[in-house]
Design goal:
Helices cover 29% and strands 30% of the residues. By secondary structure, it is an alpha+beta fold. It has 3 domains: 206 residues, Jelly Rolls, CATH 2.60.120.10; 100 residues, no CATH class; 91 residues, Jelly Rolls, CATH 2.60.120.10. α6 packs antiparallel against α7. The radius of gyration is 22 Å and the shape is globular. The structure holds zinc ion. Belongs to the mannose-6-phosphate isomerase type 1 family. Its cofactor is Zn(2+).
Length: 413
């Protein structure tokens, strides 16, 4: 077990305060810091603080995959750490995006290899052959858009905005369910129409929708106030972007600290604001759908998107509570995530914290401080600090003297 120092990623949508404050560095940071990567992604591995100085977690793994991952994880995933942990701090909305299924990722990667698009190219969609299911746990209040809302509810929203220019599109969404059109068909038709609309049309429609949102918010703050505010905020940043219209079709999700959503393949989503812990399969495969100056490959996005409607409730990850440990339930094999809350009766004495298999663990303390005992050593993690526990160094025991929260990520088998 060693202390793990994350790799900080600076993107324009990040925060100059949240990650710097969390990791105990000077505030404000010189650049907006968006993500803290705790993993072994070749693009930006985290660093182990060993007795001989810092070592890349990827290099340490590469020297002994089976010993570090354990026999079970190594047999299943081979020579790779299958998950990546990120602390994400969004001061501004991210791009609208979706991630491919495994089949789509393999097919897309091979296609782009055949076409000779360099892996580092900004127009490359598939940088590896993995799907990228992701779990987002709010560390502070967190706002997101995710998954297509059931069509009937979206029709209510579009009608509430009272924008006559939207009428033909409402018809597209509501086109005679008796005629056999499913919600998914209507959503696909409408989203495709908007995302492929000529710019002059968008330059009329987006401002009309923003005007509708302003009118809606100035009358009575109705049931769609959060949706209307979000559309206004996105429209101010990206005037004329089809993604502003697409945002009208997605569930507006507000998470309190500790609450989580799970995003499976094809789910169109964006994070709007907040600080969260994101755990995902170790992949960088992103198809963008607007709200970004970056490359948007519309045909590829349409191939990957899942238009089956879902609700905010369905996106939320259920939890299973086991003593002080709350385990987030997801279907992902690559990762399992839990939160250990040590307070009250759990303070002041040592607690066994076995994982349910011998896979490797990444620990991240988000409140208080905790002493972690592993087979070969002991270390104390304060808020913002993390540790790598290789397979052969578990199970761990924990001791906290003050209220403490510790996240654990491991494999999901
Ligand atoms: Zn995502």
């Amino acid at each position: 077990m060693e202390p793990l120092r994350g790799a900080i990623r600076t993107y324009a949508w990040g925060s100059r305060t949240a990650i710097a404050e969390f990791t105990g560095r000077p505030v404000p940071a010189a650049h907006p810091e968006a993500e803290l990567w705790l993993g072994a992604h070749p693009g930006d591995p985290a660093w182990l603080e060993t007795a001989d100085g810092e070592a890349s977690l990827l290099d340490v793994l590469t020297a002994d995959w089976e010993g570090q991952l354990g026999a079970v994880a190594h047999a299943r995933f081979g020579d790779r750490l299958p998950f990546l942990v990120k602390v994400l701090a969004a001061d501004e909305p991210l791009s609208l995006q979706a991630h491919p299924s495994t089949m789509q990722a393999i097919e897309g990667y091979e296609r782009e290899e055949r076409l000779g698009v360099p892996v580092s190219s900004p127009i490359r969609n598939y940088r590896d052959t993995s799907h990228k299911p992701e779990l987002l746990v709010a560390l502070q209040p967190f706002e997101a858009l995710a998954g297509f809302r059931p069509a009937a509810r979206t029709i209510e929203l579009l009608r509430a905005l009272a924008v006559s220019d939207l009428d033909p599109f409402i018809d597209l969404l509501g086109a005679c369910p008796d005629g056999g059109q499913s919600d998914a068909d209507g959503l696909r038709a409408l989203f495709t129409t908007w995302i492929t609309a000529p710019q002059p049309d968008l330059d009329v429609l987006v401002p009309a929708v923003l005007e509708g949102a302003i009118q809606y918010l100035s009358s009575e703050a109705g049931e769609f106030a959060a949706e209307a505010k979000t559309v206004l905020e996105l429209g101010e940043r990206y005037p004329g972007d089809a993604g502003v219209l697409a945002a009208l079709l997605l569930n507006r999700v507000s998470l309190a600290p500790g609450e989580a959503i799970f995003l499976s393949a094809g789910n169109l989503h964006t994070y709007l604001h907040g600080v969260g812990l994101e755990v995902m399969a170790n992949s960088d495969n992103v198809l963008r759908g607007g709200l970004t100056p970056k490359h948007v490959d519309v045909p590829e996005l349409l191939r990957v998107l899942d238009f089956t409607p879902t609700t905010e409730e369905a996106l939320r990850a259920a939890v299973h509570t086991d003593g002080p440990e709350v385990v987030y339930q997801t279907p992902a094999e690559e990762f399992a995530v839990s939160r250990l809350t040590l307070d009250g009766a759990y303070l002041g004495h040592e607690l066994d914290a076995p994982a349910h298999h011998d896979g490797p663990q990444i620990l991240l303390c988000t409140e208080g401080s905790v002493t972690v005992h592993a087979k070969t050593g002991t270390l104390t993690l304060h808020r913002g600090e993390s540790a790598w526990v290789p397979s052969d160094d578990g199970p761990i025991r924990l001791l906290a003297q003050q209220p403490t929260a510790l996240f654990r990520a491991t494999i999901g088998l």
